[in-house]
Amino acid sequence: MKEQLEALKLEALKELESVNDSKTLNDFRVKYLGKKGPLTEILRGMGKLSNEERPVIGQVANEVRSAIGNAIQSKQDEISRKELENRLKEETIDITLPGRKPTQGAIHPLNKVIQDIEDIFVGMGYTVEEGPEVEKDYYNFEALNLPKDHPARDMQDTFYITEEFLMRTHTSPVQIRTMEAKKGEVPIKIICPGRVYRRDDDDATHSHAFTQIEGLVIDKNVRMSDLKGTLLQFVQEMYGKDTQIRLRPSFFPFTEPSAEVDITCANCKGDGCRICKQTGWIEILGSGMVHPRVLEMAGYDPNEYSGFAFGMGVERIAMLKYGIDDIRHFFTNDLRFLNQFVRI
Length: 344
Ligand code: DAH
Hints:
InterPro entries: aa-tRNA-synth_II, aa-tRNA-synth_II/BPL/LPL, Phe-tRNA-synth_IIc_asu, Phe-tRNA_ligase_II_N, Phe_tRNA_ligase_alpha1_bac, Phenylalanyl-tRNA_Synthase, tRNA-bd_arm. By secondary structure, the protein is an alpha+beta fold.
């Protein structure tokens, strides 16, 4: 029996040499040390032994069991170490590989220009207001002194939704909404940025949807010279200290008198070039003194209060500032265009 045990030990240790993974090792353990294994079998036969033999064989059997047990344990350690090494090898990160550069987003140039304009006017004490893009005919036209069938409505070809509702053609309705909300209080000093819509055919200088910024100041004794000074301050902050303005008489139903405002051409500094059509001047906005009827309809007594207003196209302001030659660039989202504004 002793020889049997020794042979078993040798056989087991030999077999163990070729075991290389946890699963086979577990099968091995069951095979040799399990209840149905040969060791248990041999030990079961111990009852037949004499009293002298039993302790001797018992000791040998225990030695064989612990020899196999120890060998299994050290094999287990070896396998675990190998498995860990393999995992580390598989999961290593090659820090010498060149990195992938994330593309950097940026504020859209139009929004940037809106922010710049807002900053300039906020610096002069204005607040920023907004109004709806789907607007009532009343606010877009009637309350701005453009009654139904008034020929000046033709100046702005309109997307009507119903008889009463339309896509606003300008940001001027926010003037009326603000005056109504203020209920006769002064001062009002606001600018209103927003999207506007017109039935225009899109080309390099026209878009059916574009952006405006409206301005409105209402108080006692507001004069045309205030308008002029404000706009001069604005254009000099926007285009540089050497920029000059001139006011040309014009017509808008909601202002009287009305003026279109030109700035000296930033490209040729007034000498005349292709951009300013050889005039040295470039038109940038419409403006005027708020018409008494507009004040009256919005609840302000024109004998007591006066005001000025102006409205400008943001795309146009941006095109002049950055030398952009086609308004459609703002809306087509071509990254070759947009990437040029990452760091402005
Ligand atoms: N709403 C005018 C337009 O879209 C621009 C404008 C002109 C606004 C004169 C004004 C203004 O507030 O006083 O063409």
